[in-house]
Amino acid sequence: MSQPPIAFFDIQRQHDSLRTELNAAALDALNSMQWLLGPQTEKFEKDFAALLGVKHCISCSSGASAIQLALMAAGIGPNDEVITSPFTFIATTSSITLTGAKFVFADIEPDTCALSVQSIEQKITAKTKAILPVHLYGYPANMPAIKALAEKYHLTVIEDCAQSLLASVQGTKTGGLGHAGAFSFYPSKNLGACGDAGAITTNDDILAQRCRSLRHGGRNQEREYEHTLEGSTLRMDEVQAAILRVKLKHLPEWTKARQQIAALYAERLQGLPLALPPASTADYTHAYCVYTIQASQRDLLKQYLKENGIASAIYYPVPLYRQPAYQHLGFEAKDFPVTEKVCQKVLSLPMFPELTRQEVFRICDTVRAFYKK
Ligand SMILES: Cc1ncc(COP(=O)(O)O)c(C=O)c1O
């Protein structure tokens, strides 16, 4: 008898376990007649900031808008350059472009897939105003070195935390390491809304106040129809806030479950021609938004898993400098040798808190069987 398929991410299991609570919370918010910037949003922001150990959380409409708002609040715009990774989702760079600034790519580290500090320093010019590290897959970038570089050159650091919720460096959670952090609550993220939502975190009172104003049309907080800044409509709604509040309570235990699944994968995938993702250490904790190996014969392995009913994904098959949308910018792949190599090998295996031990065993046995063929 053939075995049931294993999904890459099974959101149904999480939703089923919380269905009654989620339905009640969403309905209450819907019937409250306070659909924007009401009590649910306020409470969510307070609880999220407390969980992350930061002074402020400013909710917004998506991870992309969180990046855009944080940059705008930091005063970044036309004629400024922002150094970031080419090995990320396009929202990282499109959000920079939306501020009027220009993104500049540095290369990445082969093991963590995060920005290479040496490469960042090579890209700094008189126009550089910010560094935008991406904590890819849930593993933090080398923030102590990035912060030292930022201090040396007087740069702002905005963290792309879309994949790194509850990851930390030396005890400080991502989102509290740079000047501001940008989070996504896209449904498949470690904390997923039932739609789009995001948030900015910061310890800086002025940045926080500017983000609050910018997401809400640039309003002056005291005089309603006075616009101190030119903002936009980038708020999160109350229904999403109510849903996120239900899920937020479970986030620490879900993160632990992800880390246990990762440990099980690491144990069972030893000795194969593949590189495992970095494990958590005393200094760096991994949030395992996805579990990404670097495998030889990656495409054949992916196909073999599929034939055996196991889903997997490639984040990202095409680096941003090779995207058609950026063809006019004239990037050359040879300038990013590490990214070029890594994008041929990365393969993300199923990872979600409800994934069972038996499923992990089956996935690992299938990977082993592929390399023994
Ligand atoms: C690294 C990274 N940055 C930014 C984003 C954008 O988040 P959103 O989809 O909520 O706009 C994502 C979402 O996939 C992401 O993975």
Descriptive terms for the model:
373 residues; 13 strands; Aspartate Aminotransferase, domain 1; 2 domains; three-stranded antiparallel β-sheet; globular; Aspartate Aminotransferase, domain 2; alpha/beta; binds pyridoxal-5'-phosphate
Q: How would you describe this structure to a colleague?
A:
- With 373 residues, the protein is α/β, with parallel strands linked by helices.
- The protein folds into two domains: 11-248, Type I PLP-dependent aspartate aminotransferase-like (Major domain) (Aspartate Aminotransferase, domain 2); 251-372, Aspartate Aminotransferase, domain 1, CATH 3.90.1150.10.
- Helices cover 38% and strands 13% of the residues.
- The protein contains twelve helices and 13 strands.
- The protein has helices at 11-31, 39-52, 63-73, 91-98, 117-123, 143-153, 205-214, 238-248, 251-268, 298-307, 337-342, 357-372, and strands at residues 56-60, 81-84, 102-105, 128-132, 156-160, 168-169, 172-173, 180-184, 198-202, 274-275, 284-285, 291-295, 346-349.
- A hairpin with a 2-residue loop joins strand 6 (168-169) and strand 7 (172-173).
- It is globular and about 70 Å long.
- It binds pyridoxal-5'-phosphate.
- Residues 62-64, 88-89, 91-92, 134, 160, 162-163, 184, 186, 196, 198 line the site of pyridoxal-5'-phosphate.
